[in-house]
Design a protein that fits this description.
One of its GO terms (biological process) is L-threonine catabolic process. The chain has 15 helices and ten strands. By secondary structure, the protein is an alpha/beta fold. It folds into two domains: 224 residues, Rossmann fold (3-Layer(aba) Sandwich); 96 residues, Rossmann fold, CATH 3.40.50. Bound molecules: ligand F0G.
Length: 353
């Protein structure tokens, strides 16, 4: 029986690795493309969800991290550093300790989901909570990487995007061609650039007959690309994409413009409604930021931007269990009173009689 070997071994000839590269993997990638019945019905399109919460640490970041940590290991690095809204730090921590390196992570204090914090802590990361935003954290880690013996593993490290582009390969491998549209959330803006790179490479090598339009979605309170200006105090319930000055800003604009796509913004309510819809109708529980692509699709439908019959892939970027506080805060929980332990009582409370 064949076991998925992780993105480096599965796509070795398309990645900047050599036979000397020690492959640090947790079996990332190979995530399911799930038919989205509810979204397809809502939009008269053929909609698929690329479920990246199924990666080893629960987000798409693992695709880039296997590359970053493998190449850091090859270079003999002993410590790695990243800034993060949570998922990058969880991933960096897991892959770094696996390679015997010390993970150092900078996070905006009080602004990351608890599940992600738990991951970094349990993996043994050295955690520094910064009195500032993600953008402040990123500025500092860039400086640390210049002046201290620590390898920077944020997506400003281009090998991260090389790893992340494999998700586009998987989509084409699964569908037999590229979709018409690819929708996803945009935060620090690396992932939209990575997918676009992957789709371009497959089209160039005739493994796909077309390239999708790339449609990215930011949260209204953290939408620097849509507004065309840095957001000094980004704010959104979707903490993962609370970014005011994305590192891959230009790459994201290029992906949008070269693909004939768009980058738009959504309210927090649209994002939370989509999170709820994905969970309630598709059976897919994602964290708030990860629902931005689905929210974007519903928004596009209401704006008349969609052409019926289109094939649409939406990346849902991270697992819902990472942020249960937000889920429970914003989704009404109808808890029944504590019920006697007998069948009749339960049948009554459950509304069966
Ligand atoms: N979705 C999730 C769940 C994320 O964690 C991120 C980014 C994005 C979407 C946006 O992707 O930055 O490539 O545009 N999280 C980063 C982090 C910022 O630190 O974990 P992007």
């Amino acid at each position: 029986a064949h076991q998925w070997r992780g993105v480096i071994e599965e796509y070795r000839d398309r990645l900047p690795v050599s036979t000397d590269t020690p492959v640090v993997t947790l079996g990332e990638g190979g995530t399911p493309l799930v038919a989205a019945q509810w979204l397809s019905e809502q939009t008269n399109c053929e909609v698929w969800l690329k479920v990246e919460g199924n990666n080893p640490t629960g987000s798409f970041k693992d695709r880039g991290m296997t590359m970053a940590i493998s190449l850091a290991a090859q270079a003999g690095d002993k410590a790695v550093v990243c800034a993060s809204t949570g998922n990058t730090s969880a991933s960096a921590a897991a892959y770094a300790v696996r390679a015997g390196m010390l993970p150092l992570v900078l996070i905006p204090a009080g602004r990351i989901a608890k599940g992600k914090l738990a991951q970094a802590v349990v993996h043994g990361a050295k955690l520094v909570s910064i009195d500032g935003s993600f953008d402040d954290c990123l500025r500092i880690v860039r400086e640390l990487g210049k002046h201290y013996p620590v390898a920077l593993v944020n997506s400003v490290n281009p090998v991260r995007l090389e790893g992340q582009k494999t998700a586009a390969f998987e989509v084409v491998d699964a569908l037999g061609d590229a979709p018409d549209l690819h929708l996803l959330p945009v935060g620090n803006a690396g992932n939209i650039a990575a997918y676009w790179k992957g789709y371009q490479e497959y089209a160039k090598d005739k493994l796909a007959t077309k390239k999708p339009q790339m449609w990215g979605f930011q949260a209204e309170g953290a939408a620097p690309i849509v507004r065309g200006a840095i957001v000094e105090k980004p704010d959104t319930v979707a903490t993962a994409i609370r970014v005011g000055n994305p590192a891959s800003w230009t790459l994201a604009e290029n992906a949008r413009d070269e693909s004939g796509g768009r980058i738009e913004m959504l309210t927090d309510q649209q994002i939370l409604d989509a999170q709820r819809g994905l969970a309630a109708h598709e059976g897919v529980f994602v964290e708030p930021a990860s629902a931005a692509g689905a929210a974007g699709l519903l928004h596009a439908k209401s704006q008349g931007w969609l052409q019926g019959g289109s094939t649409v892939v939406i990346t849902v970027t991270g697992h819902g269990l990472k942020d249960i506080d937000t889920a429970l805060d914003h989704i009404r929980v109808d808890e029944s009173p504590v019920t006697p332990a007998n069948t009749d009582a339960v049948a009554r409370v459950a509304g069966l009689v």
